[in-house]
Amino acid sequence: MTVGSDVKQCLSSIKNVKGSLSSLELRTEDEEAKQIFQETVTTMEEIIKDLKKRVGQLELEEDQYKGF
What is the pTM of this model? Predict the structure, then answer.
């Protein structure tokens, strides 16, 4: 695997984790747990944003990573 594909795979995995956490937040009735899930989702959104920037950088730096 190339660095570009590894980063894209990581991004995809983190998006899946974020979706699972969001689902758990909606299903739980425990208010403390809801808050923890929401805080974690917010953190995941920041990580996703950073990884998307990195993918963009990789695509600009290396032609082989374009279109991943």
Answer: 0.82
